Amino acid sequence: MAEPPITALVEENGRVFIVEVVDESVKIKGIGVFNPKATIDTVEYGKEVQIGSKIFTHLPPRLPELILGMKRRAQTIGSKDAGVLIARLGIGPADVVLEAGLGSAGQSMHLARVMGGSGHLITVEPREEHSSVGLENLQTLARALTEFPKHSHIHGMIESSVGEIEAVVNEVDAILLDLPEHTAAIKSVAHLLKIGARISCYCPVSSQLEDAWTACEESGLEIEWAGEVIEREWGKASKGGVRPVNGPFGHTAFLLIAQRKN
Ligand SMILES: C[S@@+](CC[C@H](N)C(=O)[O-])C[C@H]1O[C@@H](n2cnc3c(N)ncnc32)[C@H](O)[C@@H]1O
Q: Of all helices (H) and strands (E), which one includes residue 254?
């Protein structure tokens, strides 16, 4: 039997709820108890619907809605860094991509979107309480997209899972690491990179960046770029015009990109 469709309800304050359009009464935290099929099915995209005392706009579940409405456990990589990593690693359709750790799948969701149906994403994660959330987010995304890559998930630490990874693929077009300790991971999987392929390391603190840098060089990779992506949001000023908004100028992580040249 086909699974019920997925849709998005956006509250006036911007909060997004990803809803499975089932024909039964469900309780969704932040919305309340309602029957999604009876309530939303006849509401066109772009139109408003009242549920209890709240007004929501019904929208298609595109990647930004799915990211805003995703379940979260481990800290996620957001679009600011995910987009740059995808561009700098040159990831696209038909690529084979290895990623660790899966965490809540924030980065994996961005990857799956650009890899399409011809790609193969291999994710690795040792903590089941994290992978249960990440895998659920990927399943929801797969139901919302018309194309989704082949997905292989491996339970374990990446440095202890090389045999399992090699049982699935011989070589990869890109590797993305977001781990507390990058060194062992880099040294264990660098040989899987095709010549010309790149690895990225997402490093919240500078000591991680330095360690990852050294490990890449010791693994025969060439550092291509290291740095951080700084984002500055603008908004409408109360007296007219637009200007940078008041608020924190936040740090997420330092990024390291290295390439296998030979
Ligand atoms: C910050 S989270 C990753 C978040 C993910 N990039 C996202 O965007 O949602 C880091 C994850 O790495 C996992 N991890 C830690 N050491 C690992 C290792 N050696 N191999 C694979 N995963 C590891 C952790 O359990 C955790 O879930």
A: strand 254-259
